Amino acid sequence: MRSRSGVNGFSPVELRKLRALKTPAGVQRFLDSLPYHLADTSWSPRKVLQKKTAHCLEGAIFAAAALRVLGFPPLLWDLEAVNDTDHVLAIFKVRGCWGAVAKSNFSGCRYREPVYRTLRELAMSYFNIYFNLRGERTLRRYSQPVDLSRFDDRHWMTSERSIWFIPEYL
Q1: Which one of 23, 59, 87, 100 is CB 3.0 to 4.6 Å from 54, fit for a cystine?
Q2: Domains along the chain?
Q3: pLDDT at 3 over 60
Q4: Quick one: which of 90, 94, 64 has its CA closest to 77?
């Protein structure tokens, strides 16, 4: 959906920054350059651009928006854990194979090249490195992809307000 100010409300300057990322790997490099913060926030991708920091959820939502600007559907995916925190990623498909972009303090929980034929294969690529501080493997299941375009009427990409409705939906 395009508005007068760009893709779903992004300014021309914001769109240039997002388009400059060029590929999913470029989106991941950008996320890797941002400091990780621990605040209990739910910022829109616009706010992440302004604040220049993000945590896991905000990074995934930012990545979904950036991927959308690059021509991919804005898909979020939740890796669900027991005795640990969930991990949210933006996922994308290239030539029929799944890949992922994510923000994490641990590099093993970030980017995946689009080489996985199914979402199960993609999820299993995270299993061995998904453990809590007690060393327990905690990854148990994954969600169906959530297309964030369902929230376009709530301006999820550019809102100045918190976008808690996205994690609440997950």
Answers
A1: 59
A2: 2-169 (3.10.620)
A3: no
A4: 90
